[in-house]
Amino acid sequence: MQKYVIKDFERPSRKIIETFKEFDVSTVYEAQGKQGLFHHSIKPVQYGKTICGPAVTVTCPAGDNLMIHAAIEVCKPGDILVVSTIGESVSGMIGELIVRALMYRGVQGLIIEAGIRDLRAIRELEFPVWSKSVYSEGTTKNRGGWVNAPAICGGVEVNPGDIILADDDGVVVVKKEDIDSTLEATQKRIEKEQGTKEKIAKGELSLDFYQLREVLQKENVIYYDHIHDVK
């Protein structure tokens, strides 16, 4: 199978990226029909960060980071590096030096379905990272792979130019072809949630405005005034 690096691709407009950056992962995931959410094993290594931008995809053989070095060259300001591996990997495939190189290129952050190391230094640099593990085990640099090819990361297919949104809740991808529909659905969901917040502020119960009492009845859930009333 041919291995390759694609140097460039079409990126979403800055306006679109800035709009999605106002959203959160959970809302976008729900709005697009519970699709695009990365596996829960990929977690933020520092909280309070939100990134949103076009994906630069990297696929490496497990335990080898040659293609990450190749990807640095093609990254542009605002990009998000998304790294997957062929085979299970927890090795520290990225550390402080690669992070510094990514920051120099203007990369917003990193999503990696493998390990990182030099965690303290990365946190001090305030570079946003979502990873599967933190592990000092090193890697080789002698096995080819792919940059900007379709990749499977966190159980989700990611293509170069797809929008990546990541925050404390995790990571979600919005496909290039779904950007407009997801944007519309997300905005509608936010408006609906605002209405729900107003109901809560008025003291209304979710059992009522979600019509859940009927579900409780259907499930034969019985109310008792006191514990000793239960038969």
Automatic annotation (TrEMBL):
Keywords on record: Lyase, Magnesium, Metal-binding
UniProt protein name: Putative 4-hydroxy-4-methyl-2-oxoglutarate aldolase
PANTHER family to which the protein is assigned, alphabetical: 4-HYDROXY-4-METHYL-2-OXOGLUTARATE ALDOLASE 3-RELATED, BLR3842 PROTEIN
Cofactor(s) in the UniProt record: a divalent metal cation; Mg(2+)
Taxonomic lineage of the native organism: Bacteria, Bacillati, Bacillota, Bacilli, Bacillales
UniProt binding sites for substrate: 95-98, 117
Species this protein is from: Ureibacillus thermophilus
InterPro entries xref list: RraA/RraA-like (IPR005493), RraA/RraA-like_sf (IPR036704)
Amino acids binding Mg(2+): 118
CDD domains noted in UniProt: RraA_family (cd16841)
Family: Belongs to the class II aldolase/RraA-like family. Belongs to the LigK/PcmE family.
